[in-house]
Amino acid sequence: MLGFLKEPVVVTAKINVNLVALTVMGLISRLWGLCYPRAVVFDEVYYGQFVSLYMKRIFFVDDSGPPFGHMLLALGGYLGGFDGNFLWNRIGAEYTMNVPVWSLRLLPALAGALCVPLAYQILVELHFSHCAALGAALLILLENSLITQSRFMLLESILIFFILLAVLSYLKFYNLQKHSAFSGSWWFWLLLTGVACSCAVGVKYMGLFTYMLLLAIAGLHFWHMIGDQNLSNVSLLCHFLARGLALIIIPMGLYLSFFYVHLALLYRSGPHDQIMTSAFQASLEGGLARITQGQPLEVAYGSQITLRNVLGKPMQCWLHSHTNTYPIRYENGRGSSHQQQVTCYPFKDVNNWWIVKDPGMQQLVVSNPPRPVRHGHIVQLVHGITTRYLNTHDVAAPLSPHSQEVSCYIDYNISMPAQNLWRVEIVNRESDTDVWKTILSEVRFVHVNTSAVLKASGLSGASLPEWGYRQLEVVGEKLSKGYHQSMLWNVEEHRYGKSQEQKEREVELHSPTQMDISKNLSFMAKFTELQWKILTLKNEDTEHKYSSSALDWITMDTNIAYWLHPTSGAQIHLLGNVATWASANAAALVYLCLSLWYLLRRRRKIYDIPEDAWQLWMSAGGVCGGGWAVNYLPFFLMEKTLFLYHYLPAVTFQILLIPVVLQHLCDHLCRSVLLKSMFSALTVAWFSSVYFVYCTFSPVTYGQPALSLTELKALRWKDTWNILMRKQ
């Protein structure tokens, strides 16, 4: 029974020494001296703020993309014991002892290091020789720009890692298709493709470019499968469903999970709350939640409310009034109603309070039981402090003469009667009998007499002059002109009014609410709002010293100074390996010209290379050339500030194209032994130049050793490069 113990247990394993060696070299090149410099380097000043907010569980919105990449950086901080206490206010600021620099930079460095063996495996899976694959990996290893970008708390190396992982996984899955369909390894690589694509998109939306490329390649491969008569309809359906599950459904679910974790971690109120809706703000601990906790849910006749405009940008504001009136005549000579001003005020104030009144009754308190206001009900809005009624009439607004002036009505005993009836329309209602709810309901107020809609027009235009205290204009907009978020309002603060006397009511308006009804948003509601904010909220793009155009990237006419030592000439620059980038451009040009030549010749039934070599050539071009195109060309359509690092995913694919072209030239154009020997010698000489450039620019890649002024001048190979020269 125990006879098997008489023999030793032997485990055999195949180890790819090339792969192990490349991984070790990648780790050394990216991890060496990782803590240097112990100062904020370029965009670490940007991403570091978000890491600190994660450590403190404070909510934020970053319009640059989804939260997965930020969470990975925060994971490094968490593993290093970072408490989030550091002021990220300037590049070059020295890190304090509580900042775990090595941990914060570790994950980007690991991702950058693993790109080296991934490049090797991609070329192998494309059925190129191990020599070509080794060349591709070494080119990635010696690429100065990729080294620089991966050694700091930045996201591009993580993005490139997931992009290459997705490509490799799909190629492995495709190569298993003919002989091992639906096997365990087949499923593993297919599922990993979808997971890697989702992670790439979750790091930066630039990952969508490669995801779309892989979906297109998968669609093309499936189209070819449809023509395979050996596959039954059931088998084709299973293949289709498997791809749909792995490449669409699972990535979508994983993408949602990134936001779920993000929102679960960031439950505290913070500086970015103001751009979110009142409902979202109220779901966070502190901030608005501290004010609104325990408010009544249903708005009733007699309710005391503040009304926040839903648009919320460029700033949040609340419906407001004060005792001052519109001037009798404006600067341009137009007349006004001289009624009490109504504005949208971007700060909390007691003059933001209004009372919801039933037009058929005089009382300004909530009855017992409360009578809720529903969709379609007619109300009057009474300003809490001045007790005047919200009104609009056929008088031109001060800044928007095409719209009606909105005021609080003052009876001057002239032929201008009050027009103060408003119909409540709940835009996000589920039925026509919905009750108007605090925080949750988005409401439009339609004027009964003129059908004008209450609108905060000042959010998209200029503020009022000095007589209006530079507050934002509110107008009555005609309903026929369409709807906009500036016409929508939600109740933010709410209490049930109890005091009929004005003096007592003023005291009541100044006091906090104390009732206990909670309002929680569902995850999908919060996700939808946050996703929409990320996609639509754009910071004002300004010209940056190191910004560049997409055309500058191909010839590397630009660089970015990442860091400068405060006393010596040590500095770090984002600069590519000139020899590699020039070779990548040449390889892309050669690939394009040869492909066109082959296509023309094949059209004439002239086949210069075997069919299997042609298929190999086209598949490699689709992955490497297509990867370069989809990650580069979209930037010509973008209206945003661009930097050289945006080109790194594209140039990574272009670098992979170099060994593809070299092997093709050697195999099919160098026909004789002599030509092959000469070509090999030239390739070695060329690769030596790549290594020489890498060594030459290593001091500005790693930031050490410090260079003299003469040495720095010698590195300025192009006049457009901004190498920093410190006066001595």
UniProtKB/TrEMBL annotation:
Protein EC: 2.4.1.109
UniProt keyword Mitochondrion, yes or no: no
Gene Ontology CC entries for this record: endoplasmic reticulum membrane
Span of domain MIR: 296-359, 370-427
The keyword Lyase is annotated on this UniProt entry: no
Highest taxon above the source species: Eukaryota
Protein name, UniProt field: Protein O-mannosyl-transferase 1
The species this protein was found in: Anthoscopus minutus (Southern penduline-tit)
